[in-house]
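> @MW can you paste both from yesterday?
MW: sure, first one:
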Amino acid sequence: MYEDSWKEFQLEGSIPEIDFETNDVLFVGMTESNSCPYILDSLKTNIEKSQISITFEPLDDVCTADLSPRNFVIAIDKKLSSKLTSFRIVSEQKEIEVPILVKSIESYG
């Protein structure tokens, strides 16, 4: 399932090994301008709000209007992830909150 999601999100390169006994993985799909790529500023959890928040650095003043896919894969300790229900994306233009959809990953072997 992890490898299937890696392919579905069209990620390139070798697939990082994840210890699924202690970690869960979030796949986040976005779009961005080719001339102004998102740069991760911070990643924080807020257990009181059952939320994980990703913040990006401000974008350049002038960006092209094209959209390219940009994906992030985030490993989170299960002690935290089991308490999260939403994901907040924060940029200078807006804040978006989306629910976390759970897709179980089975271990083979």
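MW: second:
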Amino acid sequence: MCTSSKPCWPTRLSEASSWEGWPHAYHPGRLDLEGRIDAETAAGLSARGHDVRRLNDWSPMMGAMSAIVVDQEAGVLKAGADPRRDSYAVGR
């Protein structure tokens, strides 16, 4: 949860490297990683038995998020939109 002592920065969160796990029968153990996740991390996950698939750096397969944080103390909105797809965050 975002608080004044622990702020969230929506832009930074929406631009973070993404991953997706597949815990079902179609792709058991599969783990999709964006290319910005380093090779050492991917190798470590493979060594632990995950079926690691590398995607491009900004894969639209990871979905897209938009977020708005209301900073009531400062009286402002902080917003971020995912660069993986055409998206935006609007608030008032």
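> thanks! The chain is about 15% helix and 25% strand.
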